[in-house]
Amino acid sequence: xxxxxxxxxxxxxxxxxxxxxxxxxxxxxxxxxxxxxxxxxxxxxxxxxxxxxxxxxxxxxxxxxxxxxxxxxxxxxxxxxxxxxxxxxxxxxxxxxxxxxxxxxxxxxxxxxxxxxxxxxxxxxxxxxxxxxxxxxxxxxxxxxxxxxxxxxxxxxxxxxxxxxxx
Length: 167
Ligand SMILES: CC(C)(COP(=O)(O)OP(=O)(O)OC[C@H]1O[C@@H](n2cnc3c(N)ncnc32)[C@H](O)[C@@H]1OP(=O)(O)O)[C@@H](O)C(=O)NCCC(=O)NCCS
Hints:
By secondary structure, the chain is an alpha+beta fold. It has a domain at about 5-120: Gcn5-related N-acetyltransferase (GNAT) (Aminopeptidase). The protein is about 25% helix and about 30% strand.
C-alpha cells in the first residue's frame, strides 16, 4: 500500500455513520451511535477522518473505495483543555503512521484555538494504545478507578503541545 493514498480531512455530517462504525469496530466501548453523534455535533470542529484518495483497489485483503473512512480522531474541549474522546485506525492500516498523523492534526487544531494541553483516558490493560500515546509524548497523569462500565480502571494521560511538534 502507498500511504500517499491516504489523506486526513475534517469530518463532515455524512462521515458520521463511518465514524460510528470505525469507533465501535475498534474501541471497546459502551458508547452508542447516539452518544457518538452527540459528541460529533458538540465538537465537530475537532473531528477528523483518514480517508482514501484513490479509486477502488485491492491492496489489502478487501476492496477499499475512494473517500472511504479508514480512521478517525474525535477531539473535544473538556474543562478548558483539549481532550481526545476517541481515536481508531482500521486494523489493516495500523502501524503506518495514520494514528500519529490524526493526533498531530487534531492537536494543531487545539493549539490554533489556544488550547495547549491535551488529555485522554486509556484502559489500563490496553498496552498497545499506551505504547502509542507514550511514543507520541503523552505522560501518565493519574488513574481513575473503575472508569469504564465493565469496571476497568482508566489511566489519564496528558501532553503539553507546542507549535514545533516533530514528525
Ligand atoms: C491506537 C491506534 C489508533 C494507533 O494507530 P496506528 O495508526 O496504528 O499508529 P501509528 O502507526 O501512527 O503509530 C505511531 C507510533 O506508535 C507505535 N504504536 C502504535 N500502535 C502500537 C501498538 N499496538 N503497540 C506498540 N506500538 C504501537 C508505532 O510503532 C509508532 O511508533 P514509531 O513512531 O516509533 O514508529 C490503533 O492501534 C487503533 O486504532 N487501536 C484500536 C483503538 C484504540 O485502541 N484506540 C485508542 C484507545 S481509545
